[in-house]
Amino acid sequence: MANRIGMEVSFAVAEAAKLARSEVVAAYPITPQTHIVEKLAELVAEGELDAEYIPVESEHSAMSACLGSSAVGARTFTATAGQGLELMHEVLFVASSSRLPIVMAVANRAISGPLNVWGDHSDVMAARDCGWIQIFTENGQEAFDLTLCAFRIAEDHRVLFPIMVHLDGFHLSHMVESLYPLEQSEVDAFLPPYKYPFALDPAKPVTLGAYGPPFIYTEAKKAQEVALRSTKEVILEVWREFNRRFGRQYSPVETYATEGADTLLLTMGSFSETASVAIDRLRKQGEKVGQIRLRLWRPFPFEELYQAVRTAKVVIVLDRSISVGGPGGPVCSEVKSALYHLKERPQIVSFVGGLGGRDISVADFENIVRKGQKLAAQGVGEHYEMIGLRE
């Protein structure tokens, strides 16, 4: 393992794609993702990465090019953010239903309007049902590690699904952080050469995903749903292998300071680390609080969530996206749905904040926990709070 170094997180993601020996990179620059693909273009131009770099005219074209390269058996990587993810939206469904193991980094960004280039989770939540495996990262080390793991997971013949690796725009993508990179020999031992079992061959032409009339479409979507859910065992297997080799363990749902806690704060992404500081402060004050970090977004980790909340009385969910006209936050809605069947389930309180790149401080998180406890005591189940509003 290489010595610890400082590196911009976007460059760490690009380095992971290089160490994975990506063969095709098709991408369009969009803030705050641009540094990832600029770095990869530089690595290709300087001969440090033996890959085909395809400069395209839009994100729709980027994902379309990824479809072709992955379908013929090339290890394929791309990256995008915000509006770019939405521009490629229709093609995302083709990638997943065609079982093409593309890896994509998403530097999460707020969706217009008004125009905003800063980070929140509105882009990923708009694409949550596109059939991709989706993983959230909190820091540079995780972005590096989980990008490497994404290739191993996606290309496993038991999986063959595309994967998004989410990192918060600006709050994470443009930060210089300390991390342990890996040597090329270490990555080669962890990530075997890619061989797609259904690679297209001009000598044996076939039609792929052309038309699904009513008598087969339902069965095709059911098969896709069953297959995506079944990938969790492989995800766990790969994360265990990564831990065995490199000493860093990842789990679908991760807990922090939950011993004896009857109130749990659920977070996703880079703000989780700030929330952990707030949890530490509250526990020093005698509060019985803990934290849940939701890492695996799709397939949704139902069983792991059940185990994480089994002794909790209150679960406070922070969403960084709002379901406009709906029940508040999309993550909270899914948590409520996942826990609904439990005979003894905790009260769930929804908060929405950090929209459009607005910070949530340690003190803000402390207030979220205290207010969430107060609302739970009042029995306010269908209520949600939007935090950080200007007076």
Based on Cα principal axes, name the global outline. globular
Please identify the oligomeric state: single chain
Q: Indicate the CATH architecture of the largest domain.
A: 3-Layer(aba) Sandwich
Spell out the helices and strands N to C.
Answer: EHEHEHEHHEHEHEEHHHEEHEEHEHEHE
What does this structure look like?
By secondary structure, the protein is of the alpha/beta class. The chain folds into 2 domains: 5-245, Thiamin diphosphate (ThDP)-binding fold, Pyr/PP domains (Rossmann fold), CATH 3.40.50; 253-386, Rossmann fold. Helix content is 41%, strand content 18%. It contains 14 helices and 15 strands. The longest helix is centred in the middle third of the chain and has 17 residues, at 214-230. It starts with a strand and ends in a 5-residue tail after the last strand.
Helix-strand blueprint:
Blueprint: E1 5-8, H1 9-19, E2 24-27, H2 34-45, E3 52-55, H3 59-71, E4 76-80, H4 82-87, H5 89-97, E5 103-108, H6 122-126, E6 133-136, H7 140-155, E7 163-168, E8 176-179, H8 184-190, H9 214-230, H10 232-246, E9 253-256, E10 263-267, H11 271-284, E11 289-294, E12 296-298, H12 302-309, E13 314-319, H13 330-339, E14 347-352, H14 362-377, E15 384-386
Parallel strand pairs: 2-3, 2-4, 4-5, 5-7, 6-7, 10-11, 10-13, 13-14, 14-15
Antiparallel strand pairs: 1-8, 6-12, 9-11
Helix pairs in contact: 1-2, 1-7, 3-5, 11-14
